[in-house]
Design brief:
Elements lengths: L17 H7 L2 H4 L3 H17 L5 H20 L11 H13 L12 H37 L4 E6 L2 E7 H26 L1 E2 L15 H7 L4 E2 L3 H6 L2 H27 L7 E3 L51 H4 L13 E3 L12 H23 L2 H21 L7 H8 L2 H12 L1 H8 L7
Helix pairs in contact: 3-4, 3-6, 3-8, 4-5, 6-7, 7-10
């Protein structure tokens, strides 16, 4: 919706500056609400007709014109004209073109304030229904996979260190439970926004005595908003839904990052389906899970309904390095590596946040702590710190002359202190239960 509305009153004697017109235009954003805007206008025309503001003939004509506009938007043939600053003015302008001056009466007693508030609620309510359906489908898939693969055993990790044997299903359902909470929060947010602000006017109500209860029912709301000033000013539901989406993206990103790590050759727990993998420009034999950490369906959706006219260029000013054009030349050839479970993800929209930087920092910290713990096992920390400082200042050149590179020193010391044997025994003790399950014939995800 446009930021500012300019009426036809005598207060305005000059033309609007072109810069102001461009700044105030929001049709490129709010055109997605075309259906919600038409639904609200249809319901309001019925309401003011019942109140005697419109004749039956005018009401029928208005609703017929609105349905014609709906067909144009659905078919992609609606023509935007100069002066259509938002979706509301565009629809009203087109309605007047179709049925004449009677089209302007659809706005009688209605302010842009309550119209916009109603359209946003209607649009987001429909969005919540679609997202809720997708989320429930994802939870159902996770539950079915967990039931079918309950016998698969895998190591459970803390800080990327193997800790205890767990079931694959246990890990999968840990994410499903977070998605379940997301679904519950979405239902609660949708219920709070499902109140009708239409009929509140600019802020103090409608002057024609319309039936707000009937208007609310016709639009599928639970009830009218109780306070007209709050009705036109409240945008809490927008912020609440934005928070919900951000939290869902974090939960999906956790799931995606686990799969990305487990898809590596070092772990090889899962193998990504070729349908959801992409190639690498420098390593064409590697199928990479590029789509998983990105917050939009991959590849990036084109902003126009038709392909870009130049197939060798990208429609965005900063094309992604793994764009469709870049990936077309990549051939994915790979002999499947060892994996006990082949994972084929369900084609749901990827709504994850890019947490690659966070993961990198976490791995770096884990590596640093591992080195500190290894040094502590080799001797006292003060001695090791003093020895390292001395080596850095004086001993590097001496070791190079003797043919012992600096990078081998820690390995040799660890071998002298039996670090390798100790680590081997520690690994065997921690995975005794896992090995016992393997002896019993249980499948292992190792």
């Amino acid at each position: 919706m446009a930021l500012f509305q300019r009426g036809e009153g005598a207060r305005f004697t000059g033309k609007t500056d072109p810069v102001m017109e461009k700044f105030n235009n929001s049709l490129h954003v709010d055109r997605v609400m075309w259906e919600a805007d038409l639904d609200g206008s249809v319901a309001y025309s019925q309401c003011i007709e019942a109140a005697g503001v419109l004749s039956a003939e005018e009401g029928t004509s208005i609703r017929s014109g609105l349905e014609s506009i709906r067909a144009e938007w659905a078919a992609g043939t609606f023509v935007v004209c100069e002066g259509d600053e938002d979706i509301h003015t565009a629809n009203e302008r087109r309605l007047t073109e179709l049925i004449g001056p009677a089209g302007g009466k659809v706005h009688t007693g209605r302010s842009r304030n309550d119209q916009v508030a109603t359209d946003v609620r209607l649009h987001l309510r429909g969005t919540c229904e679609k997202l809720g359906g997708l989320l429930r489908g994802l939870i159902q898939v996770a539950a079915k996979r967990a039931a079918a693969e309950a016998d698969i055993i895998m190591p459970g990790y803390t800080h990327l260190q193997s800790a205890q044997p767990i079931r694959w299903a246990h890990w999968l359902l840990s994410h499903a439970w977070s998605w379940k909470r997301d679904a519950e929060r979405l239902e609660q947010a949708a219920a709070r926004m499902n109140e009708c602000p239409l009929g509140s006017g600019a802020l103090a109500g409608n002057p024609f005595g319309i039936d707000r209860e009937a208007l609310s029912d016709s639009l599928g709301f639970t009830r009218p908003v109780q306070n007209s000033i709050d009705a036109v000013s409240d945008r809490d539901f927008v912020a609440e839904l934005s928070f919900w989406a951000a939290l869902l993206q974090v939960h999906l990103s956790k799931f995606a990052e686990d799969l990305i790590i487990w898809n590596t050759q070092e772990f090889a727990f899962v193998k990504m389906a070729d349908a959801y993998s992409t190639g690498s420009l420098s390593r064409t034999s590697n199928p990479n899970p590029h789509p998983y950490p990105y917050p939009y369906p991959y590849p990036h959706p084109h902003p126009h309904p038709h392909p870009h006219p130049n197939p060798h260029s990208h429609p965005h000013p900063h094309p992604h390095p793994h764009s469709h054009q870049a990936r077309r030349s990549c051939r994915r050839r790979r002999t499947p590596t060892r994996a006990s479970c082949s994972l084929t993800p369900t084609p749901t929209p990827t709504l994850t946040l890019t947490l690659t930087l966070t993961l990198t920092l976490t791995l770096a910290l884990a590596l640093a702590l591992t080195q500190v713990r290894a040094a502590a096992r080799q001797g006292s920390a003060p001695d090791r710190a003093h020895d390292d400082a001395t080596d850095d200042a004086q001993g590097y050149a001496h070791r190079v002359q003797q043919g012992q590179p600096r990078g081998q020193r820690g390995h040799l010391r660890c071998a002298q202190h039996g670090g390798g044997r100790t680590e081997h025994r520690h690994w065997g003790a921690r995975h005794a239960h896992t090995q016992a399950r393997a002896d019993e014939g249980a499948p292992l995800l190792l």
